[in-house]
Sequence to fold (155 residues):
Amino acid sequence: MGLTHINEKHNPKMVDVGDKDITKRIAVASGKIKMKIETKKAILEEKTKKGAVLQTAIIAAIMGSKKTSELIPMCHNILIDGVDVDIEELEDGFKIIVTAKTTSKTGIEMEALTAVSVGLLTIYDMAKAIDREMELYDIRLEYKAGGKSGEFKRS
Fold:
């Protein structure tokens, strides 16, 4: 099987999805940020200098999903039907879970993964003045459905 993003002259190309069927597609991605307990407490109590960290991270995640094709070179610009962002507390930080949906000719995994990454980076940015040791980790696709490749569920 050949590389899909390389043309016959071995130059990069964007895959032609013109003949693909339009289907409902969904992707769920997640990621975590680890921090000091004091940092988590400051975020939860909204006592950081930059304001409401978690709410801002949710908005940033949604915005990130909408900018994916501008950030990832071979990503198609697709219409996004919806993006839902949830933030769960962990003992040592937070977990962001993004569910993204589209009715399109190509998938929405990259939009969900980008949303998670931008949300986590926003938390880091807004709390870095009190904790530069924060770590982003476990950014991953959890689930996807729709399209030719069918369903994927992380085991």
